[in-house]
Amino acid sequence: MEYDQPLIRATLNQRYKRFLADVTLSDGRQVTAHVANPGAMTGLAQKGMTVWLEPNDDPKRKLRYSWRLVEVGTALVGVDTALPNKVAGAALRQGLVPELAAYTLVRPEVKYGKNSRVDFLLGAENLPDCYVEVKSANLSRRAGLVEFPDTVTDRGARHLHELASMAEQGARAVLLYLVQRSDCTQFALAADIDPAYAKAARMAREAGVETLCYRVNLTKTGASLGQPLPIVAP
User: Fold this and answer.
1) End-to-end Cα, the chain, rounded Å
2) What's the burial of 171, exposed, middle or buried (CB within 10 Å: 0-12/13-18/19+)?
3) Domain positions in the chain
4) Is 44 exposed, middle or buried (0-12, 13-18, 19+ CB in 10 A)?
5) Predicted confidence (pLDDT) per residue in 14-68, tens digit
6) Biggest CA pair distance of the chain
7) How far from 215 is each of 28, 32, 206, 218, CA to CA, in Å?
8) CA torsion through residues 149, 154, 155, 157, sign
């Protein structure tokens, strides 16, 4: 997928109220950008960091800029948690996820479970329905290792319970982690940050939920599905 508008460079002043960031553009103007990320963004929101914004001219939107990327050393890191779903949707429709390539029908945001919506429901003749939840990972506290989550996520644990229930009913259930960093080669759960999520993940695996992890190839023009990454113990 490509961004709707070319990204522009800026310097981060502060991120606050989770969804807002004050930045300085290259021409010296100070503006507020939308941050599509409810997480802690540990190590990604320090004053002075170089960030990349997508402008928009939609009169219905309150903010003219959206924060998409941040530079961490020589690495690009994606901060928009909605982007992995877009990448996953495109990849699933094109059959680019080998483990799921046999599915020909891709339906987003389908109601399931008690009160949830699955990111993607996959279908194919002679195959069980496949429920796919996508999670964005960009926390790195150790060189080469990316982790999820970066904060306590009751919603994430609920999704795992819902997936486990689908697997127990005979459907296929998949948790797909998409890594928005170019500097990490392994993935692990951050069990110390959210022990309840780690426990839910273990129970989901025991119930038959599959876990996949892929890198997102990030550039300043767009993003695409990259190579799979190994999942390791924390």
Assistant:
1) 32
2) middle
3) 8-78, 83-228
4) buried
5) 999 999 999 999 999 999 999 999 999 999 999 999 999 999 988 888 999 999 9
6) 59
7) 34, 29, 25, 9
8) positive
Tell me whether the CATH fold assigned to 8-78 matches the one assigned to 83-228: no
Could you tell me how many residues make up the chain?
Answer: 234
Q: 107-155 pLDDT, tens per residue?
A: 999 999 877 899 999 999 999 999 999 999 999 999 999 999 999 999 9
Q: How far apart are CA 75 and CA 78, in angstroms?
A: 10
Tokens of 96: 């680019």
Write out the CATH class of domain 83-228.
alpha beta
Query: Which residues, 6+ apart, have CB-to-CB distance to 195 below 8 Å?
Result: none
The yes or no reply on domain 8-78 and CATH 3.90.249.10 is no
pLDDT at 104 over 80: yes
